[in-house]
Amino acid sequence: MGFPIWLTNWQVAQLDEGSLDHIVPCSRGGKNAWENLVWAGKEANARKGNRLPHETGLKLLSVPRAPKELPASALIRNAHRIPEWRLFVRE
Questions:
Q1: pLDDT tens string for the chain (91 positions)?
Q2: In contact, 45 and 25? CB cutoff 8 Å
Q3: What are the structural domain ranges in the chain?
Q4: Which SS3 state, helix, strand or coil, does residue 83 take?
Q5: 40 has which bridge partners?
């Protein structure tokens, strides 16, 4: 899916011991969007099921949000220090 490695939101868990969890479950109208997905440990995900966080006493450690866009030009460097390129890319 291309998701970054997130800090666990529902509980502290190893990255390989969890899965993506919908804050608002799909069965209750939740969307597959950055703002509705968190990385959750197996136990917390099973505990939450298809309920809302407040129905289970779970609290988010941070608010999920979409990553900021990074233009491809931000990654280009003028490693050979070509003078004509200085107006367009960093060295």
A1: 333 333 345 455 556 677 888 999 999 999 999 899 888 877 778 888 899 988 988 888 778 888 777 777 777 888 888 888 877 777 7
A2: no
A3: 1-66
A4: helix
A5: 19
